[in-house]
Amino acid sequence: MNVASISKTGGRRCNQDYVDYAVAEGAVCVAVADGLGAYHGSEFAGETAVKAALKCFRKAVRRDDDIFSGAFMNKLFKYAHAAIHKIKSVSPELRQGCTTLSVAIVRDDKMICAHEGDTRIYFFRDGRTEFFSKDHSLARLAADRGEITYDDIRTHKDQNKLTRVIGSDYFVQPDFKLCDGVKDGDALLVCTDGFWEYVYEADMEKAIAEGTDAALILSSLEKILISRAPENNDNYTALIVLFGGDDSFSAVNRDDENDDSDDESDTDEKSEKNADDDKTSGNDADDNTDNASENEEKSNG
């Protein structure tokens, strides 16, 4: 397994994206978040959500919990949601902070993915897009209604108005997808909208089909992004996993100065208890992925 990631400020003042991963007991968990730029406190929300998600994963693996279930993904996302609210409770100036969150867990030939927001999860087989996650946005809803094409989502005026996020006033279950039979040669890409707006599926497929090194693939895709993006482009973040071969886990390639260490104080047992209180299984995303409640509008910076 070969893992590499980038997280760049782009044309913005600061980077509200966050990406990291954890390896434990033969399992790998990757997480990417995109803080909502129009809301003060969203920079901390993205980082908090990712760190809490990885902490929940590590604890579950140590307890030998069933990590390949909708119930566990629902618990993990609720744990991240509670971690954000814990910080808000002592820092009210951050009360508007919200974030997207996308998580994938892999062990052997099993994989489970879950997301809230428009940070996409792509899965590739034989150099072709097998599926990608469904954006929780008004633009995606417009496409589902036939008002615009799915390609139009990238440039639609409501592309950054989200219908599901982590850290808002209420918790909404994530969509999830369970995959069996992951094999050598498959690839996973998790990326924020600042990345997929300018890097198209055809670009991803070509780079993955022709590449064998995760870091080099990301570098080639970043060059495409830079060639297309305006000077004031959004933060952009992407993490790629190539399945098969020797294990290689690269450090996150950032251009900011955020501390990416695992802060064991970012969540507490209260967050885990809150997550345990909800035993529902989450939303099966088989109908919420693209093959080859009340909506709260959130502007995603």
In short:
This protein has seven helices and 16 strands.
- Rg is 17 Å
In total, the number of strands is 16
Structural class: alpha+beta
Shape: globular
Helix count equals 7
Biggest pleated sheet = 8 strands, mixed
Query: Strand-and-helix sequence, N→C?
Result: EEEHHEEEEHEEEHHHEEEHEEE
Kindly estimate the percentage of residues that lie in beta strands according to DSSP.
Answer: 25-35%
CATH architecture: 4-Layer Sandwich
pLDDT < 50 stretches:
257-273, 276-282, 292-301
Name given to the CATH homologous superfamily = PPM-type phosphatase domain
Q: Give the integer mean of the pLDDT values.
A: 86
Reported by name, the CATH topology is Phosphatase 2c, domain 1
Helix content: 25-40%
CATH class: Alpha Beta
Q: Your description of this structure?
A:
With 301 residues, the protein is of the alpha+beta class. The chain has one domain: PPM-type phosphatase domain (Phosphatase 2c, domain 1), CATH 3.60.40. It is 29% helix and 27% strand. The protein is built from seven helices and 16 strands. Strands 1, 6, 7, 10, 11, 12, 13 and 15 form an eight-stranded mixed beta sheet that branches. A six-stranded mixed beta sheet has the order 2-3-4-5-9-14, covered by helices on one side. A two-stranded antiparallel sheet has the order 8-16. α1 crosses α2 and α5 runs antiparallel to α6. The radius of gyration is 17 Å and the shape is globular.
